[in-house]
């Protein structure tokens, strides 16, 4: 994998005891890669990511893995805030929901797989900690969104995924909240969290409703997260 160095001034040091153990996947939500690179390296914006992967599969490195890129903003996973401290942020060029959301081309996905290969060889990152931005910030974010190819990642053994329509399960809102919170989600706004969950794990079923299909999938992902059978 060829990495194009494209340093951003927007980073600082990770906290002293921080261990990198998560990957956060984003889309740029900007019309093109040129604009995104300008944005992510503009000192006035105070945002960045470790990597950007464009539609053709070119990989740009903006911030070194050891340093703390500014991609996650306010969010949490499994009760831990300050996500920038313990994660690697990867931006994928895509106009996003703001500028005409598009499929992620194969070349881009394959480059992402290669990049994840490199990152997970270097850092100890478990599959249930390869996440979308909307997973860690369900009230604020939609990226990488329902068109992101989680199944392709799962075919390469990255991330959690359940393919077929599995078990149906009627869960109460509080039961769903319990399991979603155990999986890692912030459940301050349970409805936002259900949509975020569907965006990742039931992208064809983005209803925002806690129905038996969604309840069943929540349980399946809960079991996968903790390796239960
Ligand atoms: Zn994002």
Please, could you describe this protein's structure?
The protein is of the alpha/beta class and 229 residues long. The protein is 33% helix and 13% strand. It has eight helices and eight strands, in the order βββαβββαβαβααααα. The termini are far apart. The protein binds zinc ion. Zinc ion (ZN) binds next to loops.
From N to C, what is the helix and strand string? EEEHEEEHEHEHHHHH
For the largest beta-sheet, the strand count, sense and barrel status come to: 6 strands, mixed
Molecules bound to protein: zinc ion
Number of helices: 8
Sum up the overall morphology in one term: globular
Distance between the termini: 36 Å
Number of strands: 8
Proportion of β residues?
Answer: 5-15%
Low-confidence spans: pLDDT under 50, at least 5 residues?
A: none
Structural class: alpha/beta
Strand order of the largest sheet: 1-5-4-7-3-8
The average pLDDT value, as a whole number, equals 97
CA-atom Rg in angstroms: 17 Å
Observed structural traits:
alpha/beta; 229 residues; 8 helices; binds zinc ion; six-stranded mixed beta sheet
């Amino acid at each position: 994998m060829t990495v194009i160095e494209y340093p951003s001034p927007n980073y600082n040091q990770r906290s002293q005891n921080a261990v990198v153990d998560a990957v956060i996947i984003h889309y740029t939500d900007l019309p093109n890669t040129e604009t995104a690179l300008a944005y992510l390296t503009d000192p006035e914006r105070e945002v960045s990511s470790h990597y950007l992967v464009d539609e053709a599969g070119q990989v740009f490195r903006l911030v070194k893995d050891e340093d703390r890129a500014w991609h996650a903003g306010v969010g949490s996973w499994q009760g831990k805030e300050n996500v920038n401290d313990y994660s690697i942020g990867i931006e994928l060029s895509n106009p996003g929901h703001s500028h005409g959301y598009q499929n992620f081309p194969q070349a881009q996905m394959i480059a992402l797989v290669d990049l994840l290969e490199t990152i997970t060889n270097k850092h100890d990152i478990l599959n249930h900690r390869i996440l979308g931005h909307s997973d860690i910030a369900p009230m604020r974010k939609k990226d990488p969104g329902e068109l992101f190819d989680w199944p392709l990642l799962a075919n390469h053994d990255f991330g959690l995924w359940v393919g077929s329509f599995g078990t149906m399960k009627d869960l109460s809102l509080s039961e769903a909240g319990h399991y979603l919170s155990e999986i890692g989600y912030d459940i301050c706004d349970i409805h936002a969290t259900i949509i975020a969950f569907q965006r990742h794990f039931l992208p064809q079923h983005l209803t925002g409703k806690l129905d038996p299909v969604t309840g069943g999938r929540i349980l399946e992902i809960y079991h996968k997260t903790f390796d239960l059978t």
